[in-house]
C-alpha cells in the first residue's frame, strides 16, 4: 500500500526543520565560555614590591646624594649602585642606618623608607692608593727618624726653656695620676719664649682661651687638630704639651710644665672622648 503524506504532515515537518535550523544557528551565535587564568594574589603583590622604588638621601663627607632604588634591593647591590655614583668601592663602604647595615639585608627589611638618611663611611680608591704608595726610600727615612729622634725634653728647641727650671708659681704636679680639670684656669706654665701661659677652658662655648701677658687668644676647640705630650725627664710630674694649630710641626704651640695629672683631661676637653678612634 502506498503511503502518501498528508498536507498537515508536510507542514509539521517543515516547521520542525525550521526550528532545528534556528536552534543550530542560535548555538553558533552563543558566546563561548572565556577562560581567563586566575592571577595569584601573592604573585601580584610580589610584582608590586619589585616595581616600588623609594628615594633616600645618602650622606657622605658632609655631602648629600639623592638615590633611588627598589625597596627590595639588597644592601650589597645598593653599595654597588653607590660605587658608580660616589666612587667608593663597595668593599670599602660601611652604611649606617640605626646601626651598621648588613649586605644580606634589603632596604625594606632594614626599615628604610622614602626620605630616610643613610650615612656612608668609606675611602675612595684614590685615597687608598695615596696612603699605600710609599716608596722604600720613604720607609727608610721614617725608620731613621724614629730611631734617631730624641725625646722632646732633650731637643735643643725645648732645652732653652726647661733649663730655667720649674717656675716658682707652677701648679703642683702629680705623676701616675689622672684628674679632671680644676675649676680654675691652669696657670704657672711657660711658652717657647719663656713667657707665662694660662689655659682657660670655656666648654659652654667650645673654646680654649690661651692667655699670655700680652694678649688672650680664644681658640675654637675644633681648630686644634691634635695634641702631643711627653713627660719631662727628671720631673715626670710635669709634661711638655704641644697644641697642633696647623699642618706642620712648626705650627705647634708648645707649653711647658703642665701638671701631669691634668694632661688626659686636657686632651679629652679639646679633642673629645673619641680622640683615639
From TrEMBL:
Residues 1-45 are annotated as: Disordered. InterPro entries: UBFD1, UBFD1_C, Ubiquitin-like_dom, Ubiquitin-like_domsf. SUPFAM superfamilies: Ubiquitin-like. It comes from the Eukaryota. SMART domains: UBQ. Residues 54-121 form the Ubiquitin-like domain. Signal peptide: none annotated. Residues 17-45 have a biased composition (Basic and acidic residues). GO terms for molecular function: cadherin binding; RNA binding. This is Ubiquitin-like domain-containing protein.
Amino acid at each position: 500500500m502506498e503511503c502518501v503524506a498528508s498536507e498537515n504532515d508536510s507542514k509539521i515537518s517543515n516547521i520542525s526543520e525550521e526550528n532545528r535550523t534556528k536552534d543550530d544557528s542560535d548555538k553558533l551565535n552563543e558566546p563561548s565560555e572565556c577562560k581567563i587564568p586566575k592571577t595569584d594574589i601573592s604573585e601580584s603583590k610580589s610584582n608590586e614590591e619589585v616595581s616600588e622604588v623609594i628615594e633616600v638621601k645618602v650622606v657622605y663627607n658632609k655631602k648629600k646624594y639623592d638615590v633611588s632604588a627598589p625597596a627590595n634591593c639588597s644592601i650589597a647591590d645598593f653599595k654597588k649602585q653607590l660605587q658608580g655614583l660616589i666612587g667608593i668601592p663597595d668593599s670599602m663602604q660601611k652604611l649606617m642606618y640605626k646601626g651598621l647595615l648588613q649586605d644580606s639585608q634589603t632596604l625594606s627589611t632594614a626599615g628604610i623608607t622614602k626620605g630616610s638618611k643613610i650615612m656612608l663611611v668609606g675611602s675612595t680608591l684614590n685615597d687608598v692608593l695615596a696612603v699605600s704608595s710609599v716608596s722604600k726610600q720613604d720607609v727608610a727615612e721614617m725608620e731613621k727618624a724614629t730611631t734617631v729622634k730624641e725625646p722632646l725634653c732633650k731637643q735643643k728647641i725645648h732645652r732653652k726653656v726647661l733649663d730655667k727650671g720649674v717656675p716658682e708659681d707652677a701648679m703642683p704636679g702629680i705623676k701616675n695620676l689622672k684628674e679632671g680639670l680644676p675649676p680654675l684656669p691652669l696657670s704657672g706654665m711657660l711658652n717657647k719664649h719663656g713667657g707665662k701661659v694660662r689655659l682657660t677652658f670655656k666648654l659652654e662655648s667650645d673654646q680654649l682661651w690661651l692667655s699670655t701677658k700680652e694678649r688672650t687668644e680664644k681658640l675654637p676647640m675644633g681648630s686644634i687638630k691634635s695634641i702631643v705630650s711627653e713627660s719631662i725627664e727628671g720631673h715626670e710630674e710635669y709634661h711638655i704639651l704641644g697644641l697642633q694649630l696647623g699642618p706642620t710641626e712648626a705650627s705647634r704651640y708648645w707649653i711647658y710644665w703642665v701638671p701631669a695629672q691634668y694632661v688626659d683631661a686636657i686632651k679629652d676637653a679639646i679633642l673629645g672622648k673619641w680622640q683615639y678612634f
